[in-house]
Each structure stands twice: as C-alpha cells, then as structure tokens.
Task: structure prediction
Amino acid sequence: MKAAIYRKYGPPEVLQIEEIPKPFPQNNEVLIKILATTVSSGDARMRSFNVPPLPWLPFRIIMGLTGPKNQILGSSLSGIIEAVGKGVTRYIPGDEVFGSSYIKQGCYSEYICLPDDAILTIKPY
Result:
C-alpha cells in the first residue's frame, strides 16, 4: 500500500509517497480502506516541528528526538471497513465509516487498523 511518510521534520517536501506493508487487523481491530482524509494545520505543525521555545524539548521527546516517531500524519478519515479482527462485533466488512485515529495518526495512507472502540462510527445516510 502507499502512504505519505516523513522521516525528518521540515517543509512539505519532506513528505514522500512510499510503499509500505498493508496492515492486518489484530483482535478487536478493524482494517479500514481510507477514501478521504484531511490536511490540518496541526499536521503541518507536526511535520515542520514549528513549536515555541518553552515546550520545544518536552514536545521533541514526545514526538521524536531525532525524527518523528509517527511517520505517517493524518488523524481524520472516511473509509470502508475491509476486514475485522476476532472479537469485533460493532462493524462488518463493507460498513462505511468516518472518525479519527487521534494520537495514533496514520491517515495519510491507503489503509489503517484501528481498535473497534476508536473514535469511529458508521456514516449516516
């Protein structure tokens, strides 16, 4: 699968489209084929590491000292459940969903696995 990955902090040019392994849902996880995501100011700040001087070190420890810990940005998604792990009862393959990966990030990709109790719900019609 393809994902927009950043391995170092910087301008938009640090984002690169790369092939990475497609995730597989574990127990109590759902595999979502992402159809749409957002690009937010928070994503841009995280990518560029544009942080005021006072919280710079604590944020750098949390986000990654030498480079980003979460190398795939994006926290909002809309997509389709493609597979469910053992124990998932809230969703079935084919359900159209929208939600957030929250701190996990990872929505600048074709697929993502999230816990079935994540900030996720079936799209209304």
